[in-house]
Amino acid sequence: MKPSHIEHIGIAVPNLDEAIRYWEDVMGLECYNIEEVVDQKVKTAFFKIGEVKIELLEPTSPESTIAKFIENNGGKGGMHHIAFAVENTDQALADAEAKGIRLIDKTSRGGAEGLKIGFLHPKSTFAVLTELCSK
Ligand code: ZN
User: Which structural domain, as residue segments, surrounds residue 40?
Assistant: First the structure.
């Protein structure tokens, strides 16, 4: 695999509206998309900085992995994952697995913005939760 760029940085937040206000009022960026990803039990909000996006993630259920992440972070949330744009998510996952990397997703699934996404396990990536995504 050879990612073309960082697609987005995922940030877990306990309250999406409050976080959006910060990113708009202080950082001066415009939220251009709010989308619920039912499958992952999250509501997402997106901002663009050049080619890179910021993805805010608010849990919609206590069972969401984002809810657990926030709980483990003293209820505050924080930096959650980095997403890399690849040509083909399934191929990139297979390539990583062939190199001994532990996967969270064996095959891609549908993410926000219609992307095909898959995660590498942080145990294999020096503790950085790594998302791969393609169109
Ligand atoms: Zn993401």
Answer: 5-134
Distance from the alpha carbon of residue 98 to the mean position of ligand 1, in angstroms: 23
For ligand 1, the distance from its centroid to the CA atom of residue 80, given in whole angstroms, is: 9
**Which residue intervals of the chain are DSSP H helices?**
16-21, 65-72, 89-98
Say what the pTM is. Answer: 0.93
| Count of domains observed in the chain | 1
Residue 37: CB atoms within 10 A of its CB come to: 18
CATH number for the domain harbouring residue 78: 3.10.180.10
pLDDT digits (tens, 9 = 90+) for 61-115: 999 999 999 999 999 999 999 999 999 999 999 999 999 999 999 999 998 888 9
- Chain-centre distance of CA 63, in angstroms? 17
Q: What's the gap in Å between 100 CA and the centre of ligand 1?
A: 23
The rounded Å distance from CA 44 to ligand 1 centre is 9
